[in-house]
From TrEMBL:
Record flagged with keyword Zinc-finger: yes
EC number(s) per entry: 3.4.19.12
Protein name per UniProt: Ubiquitin carboxyl-terminal hydrolase
One Pfam family recorded for the sequence: zf-UBP
GO BP terms in the entry: protein deubiquitination; proteolysis
Organism: Strigamia maritima (European centipede)
Record's catalysed reaction(s): Thiol-dependent hydrolysis of ester, thioester, amide, peptide and isopeptide bonds formed by the C-terminal Gly of ubiquitin (a 76-residue protein attached to proteins as an intracellular targeting signal)
InterPro entries, A to Z: Papain-like_cys_pep_sf, Peptidase_C19_UCH, Ub_carboxyl-term_hydrolase, USP, USP_CS, Znf_RING/FYVE/PHD, Znf_UBP
GO molecular function, one term: cysteine-type deubiquitinase activity
Length: 406
């Protein structure tokens, strides 16, 4: 793609200005309103073949849409001698005399403004658009050539949390959530769309997004999560107050407050919380008369395990000492520990010290592959793998080693 535009586009702008491009980009590329999106869906067809082309272009000099792949726009150029066209998918200007897409600073500014308006109309924040340095910022970058690089030994993302009065139960869960790999990538990519149009300050997910920005900003000073605490009290009244609460109960309340429901199917949510944390417990009931099978799948966010004092299965997967029941099927097999270890990786451990009524919560967080840190409210200290293994482990957080894509 050319970087400095072309003489043909400059001549066109000198005669017609930038208004033709502004109208095309606003109405048929960015579509910053519901009406414009409907108009695009209805009107964006090739004027020659009447099909919705994959690479549809609009003539910049008259009202004509044509397919680029089928060369209908090329035929229009040959007949009308209109050599400039706009790609309706991306808004780029193509000059048929230069045989290339051409760049223009003014048109790029118009396109960026339209994208911001479109993002706002969809509920996205303005900084969803990619950052491009201004001339002043380019000069600053030239004068400061040093760049901060995140190495394998970097501890960016580790940050203490101030205890606001028996809020250690919240702090340890926040540490686990902010170090959940997929959740971290989601929020740092600014993928959240706020649905609290009247009062965005009441959106718990927006606050989580701000929390991720705080954790990964490089600031090492302990963060004060007072806004998060207020929103949790608002969304989960049973957790309001300064009494000691249960970390697991807060975890469920946090997921419930940040979980969105799919409009198309309320029984199947496709939000990021559901994709990361929700599993399915399948129950099959077999009719002894007709052998029909009735299957029910119940969603869950966690699995409660009763761990005995002794290990019943060895690590090699030998199930000779496992608990057994009488069954006629020969297809039942015990899942080995090694199978689970290859599929899931531990990245956070929440511990509780004390009694049911009172006590203190801490968390172990894994950074990179084998670096562990103990998070005790505002204190962050280095920990060993053995420290993690020796802890009791009230809540264990795992992530998949390999992700499946549908």
């Amino acid at each position: 793609m050319s970087t400095n535009g072309c003489a043909h586009l400059s001549s066109f702008k000198a005669a017609k200005g930038s208004q033709p491009y502004r109208l095309i980009h606003s109405s048929f590329v960015a579509c910053s309103s519901v009406e414009e999106r409907k108009r695009k869906a209805h009107s964006c067809i090739c004027y020659t073949c009447r099909q919705h082309g994959v690479r549809l272009h609009s003539c910049l000099q008259c009202v004509y849409f044509g397919c680029y792949g089928a060369k209908h726009i090329h035929e229009h150029v040959r007949m009308k001698k209109h050599f400039l066209a706009v790609d309706l998918s991306y808004g780029a200007v193509y000059c048929f005399q230069c045989g290339d897409y051409v760049y223009d600073t003014e048109l790029e500014s118009i396109a960026k403004s339209d994208k911001i308006k479109a993002a706002r109309s969809l509920g996205m924040r303005e900084y969803f658009c990619p950052w491009e340095p201004t001339n002043c910022e380019i000069e600053l970058l030239k004068r400061n050539p040093k760049r901060k690089r995140i190495t394998e030994n970097s501890t960016i993302g580790l940050r203490g949390l101030i205890n606001l009065g028996n809020t250690c139960f919240m702090n340890c869960i926040v540490q686990a959530l902010t170090h959940t790999p997929l959740l971290r990538d989601f929020f740092l990519a600014d993928r959240h769309v706020c649905h609290f149009e009247d009062d965005p300050s009441m959106c718990l997910v927006c606050e989580m997004a701000r929390l991720f920005q705080e954790f990964y900003s490089g600031n090492r000073a302990p963060h004060i999560p007072y806004r998060l605490l207020h929103l949790v009290w608002t969304h989960a009244r049973h957790l309001a107050g300064y009494e000691q609460q249960d970390a697991h109960e807060f975890f469920i309340a946090a997921l419930d407050g940040t979980n969105g429901i799919s409009n198309s199917n309320p029984h199947h949510c496709n939000c990021i919380i559901d994709q990361i944390f929700t599993g399915g417990l399948q129950s099959d009931v077999v009719c002894l008369s007709c052998n029909g099978v009735s299957t029910t799948i119940d969603p869950f966010w966690d699995i409660s395990l009763d761990l005995g004092s002794k290990k019943t299965n060895n690590a090699s997967g030998d199930s000779s000492n496992s608990n057994s029941i009488d069954a006629e099927s020969d297809d039942c097999e015990a899942t080995s520990l090694l199978d689970c270890l290859e599929r899931y990786s531990l990245f956070a451990v929440v511990n509780h010290i004390g009694t049911i009524e009172t006590g203190h919560y801490t968390a172990y967080i894994r950074q990179h592959r084998d670096q562990w840190f103990k998070c005790d409210d505002h204190l962050i200290t280095k920990a060993s793998v053995q420290d993690v293994l020796d802890s009791e482990g009230y809540l264990l957080f795992y992530h998949k080693q390999i992700l499946e894509y549908e």
